[in-house]
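Consider the following input, taken from an annotated entry for Outer membrane protein assembly factor BamA (Gemmatirosa kalamazoonensis).
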Amino acid sequence: MRFASLRRSAVVAATAVLSMTSARLAPAQNPVPPPSQPAAPAAQPPADQPGVCARPDSIVVRGLKRVTEASALGDLGLAPSTELNAVQLQGAIRRLYGSGQFEDVRVACEPAPSGQRATLAFYVKERPVLDAVSVSGVKVISEGGVRDKIDVLIGSPLDPAKVARAVERIDSSYQAKGFYLARIKPESTLTTDGHIRLNFHIDEGRRLAISGVRINGNTRLSDKEVVTAMKTKPEGFWWWRKGSFDDEKYAGDLSERIPTLYAQHGFIDFTVVKDTLVIDRERGKAFIDLTVSEGPQYKVGTFEVVDNHRFPTEDLQRYYPFNGEGPTLTQRAMGLLKGGAKNEKGVFDRSQWESATEKVQTAYRNEGYIYAQIQPVVQRTVGPDSQPVVNLRWQIDERQPAIVNRVDIAGNDYTSDECIRRQLVILPGAVFNQDRLLRSWQSIGNLGFFETPLPFPDTHTVNDNGDIDVTFRVKEKRTGSINFGASMGGAGVGVGGFIGLDQPNLFGLCKRGSLNWNFGRFINDFNLTYSDPAILKSRVSGSITAYRSESRYNIQGFGQNTRTGASTRVGLPVPGSYFSTLGITYGAEATSFRDVQSGAFVGQCTANCFRSDLGLDFTHDTRIDLPFPSAGGMQSLTADFVGGPLGGTVSYQRYTADFRAYTPLFEFGGGVPGAQSKKVLLGLSMKAGAVFGDPGPFFQYQSFALGGVQFGQPLRGYPEFSITPRGFDPRADNFNAFSGRAAFGNAYFTMTAELGLRLNSQLYVDAFYDAGNNYDRPRDFNPTRLFRGAGIGGSIVTPLGPLGLDWAYGFDRLSLDPITGKLRPDPKWQLHFKLGQLF
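Applying the prediction step yields:
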């Protein structure tokens, strides 16, 4: 505003200096003084002498320090000894201001003493040159983000208009973040050489809080339902309900979320008529006042599919969402989480209609029709009883299917192409299939050899027929680890340590080799494993393992167990099922027990205790995002036949089953390039096992121990070995099975439900509910008698392997009354530490 007022005053002064008289300008009687010095009194010309200021003999610019006079005169554009008028003079003044060099311009006519000649003088005040720009007081927005809004050039004259625009742009940025109370103050400091330094001092204040939301014009949906759909919510009693205002979220509420909510209930003509944000700057509060027009509620009328040739109409009608079928499991789970009003039968839901259209599009893409266009037509009309209805139609333009021309791998420097291509289910020469493309992308990510998230595969057309090339891009990350360490303990513990070598991508061929050795006075575990996922470049996999393990757990009456053995497994593909594997395993093991104190052999197995084991297993695994799966499932069945014609000192059969399923509920985040989205998921799992016969001295690992997370079958909220076939053992702890052989059952059953948050490929947190029991014999199985536990946990993948903590509440724990000697209910919390395994 100051800049504009100075310019107007200069124009007025120019008009005052020159007044038209017979097309000539007369000399001013009282010329306007320059800003820094008084003007000399002008001589008065004779009364009959025409005005000499209309045709000045010379033109000068006074007050210049930095700008040259030639440059200033050039900007003026006036020539001496030529007749001037007010319009020309005003234009000259504007050109001086327009050069950006001056903050004040005054003009005066200076007649000579004779009164026959005159000088036209322009008195100027130069703008100071900007030396530096700084920003202070920023917290919410980065200093760089604020500097991007400041459009002033260092080393140039400071323009007040640009400073004002910078203040407005910074203020707009803070308002977009919800900081309507921010104050931006430009502070200037003059230097000794007359230059200027500029600092934008920002008092951010606090974020504007929404005190309330009022909806006007809504009759079918309540204010609460509308506000629930919004991300902009009023502040509440609890600390997490701050009610912070964000301009982008508010805009999304008005343009997307509220209209989508109404469209889900059949109000597809809904509009937001007016929105008002009433701000109380003194209190830092705001009130949102919305006026809406709901429009009529539409019900579903007729439905048809036209111009479809690849799929019969009956097949496409299966995707139609308004056929009276109930919601899916995912829809039911989301309904429980989000709540909200339920639609009456026959009401049109635009979200379901759009989702069904996308499923039809996917069905065509999976058959190679990637160029097919599915046009969802919604025709508004009036049905019986003047009820507004929509007649629905899928208008299909199938076009030609696409063939996969090439599949390329890019970015793999160490891992071989062959290793990666084994994960592909989309192959050159085949009809393009979107599901196969997605599954191939997920399988490459499951290898764990590349940085995640992987870029989605590139596809591009290569010829006029619409055939495409597919390119998978990866970025190698470091795999494998070498770990070693040593410790010295007191009280007879002695020296201990560990050595670990692990390479899951040996030679870049996806082969795995690992060696682990933990040693000490009470532990001496050695394990050597080698596995090949493609023996001789076939789909047959194989592995071999050798081990020797001295258990750190003490079993009452037996002591600590030592096992020495080896096993080999061959995995065979299942015809017609890419994600299924049939495995054949042979293993041999010898075992013995030693007393913890004396170190002598005890129990029934001091020598010649040997088992020979032939195993069969079937696994169908469609999980994605390993090691923390977010979708898919895994089903595994195992049968082990020990002894009999295989030889050995024991004979029995052992069967286990493991079923897991995961479904994503919703996904958020990941908008920044390179960032992984966060996924909320629901997981269900069930495990069961049974032993028929007597495993003899091999019971410790062939029968089932229940409780804890480390030794046997996990059941959180309870100590290791505490769930026995005879109930809860209050004496058990994480290192001792006080019930001895009786702590191990020949059958077990557990199940888990979890609500998880997958933050990325290395970090996972969840809330869980466990239930299970241990049984003496398989025929004792009773799913109505289960021990229950619930809690929260987290897992992280480190170079040392998976680590995790679970804090669980055991509902059915007991304790021994020291007075009566009887068991009494004693539910409590238990902290579990997981190392080397994930649930």
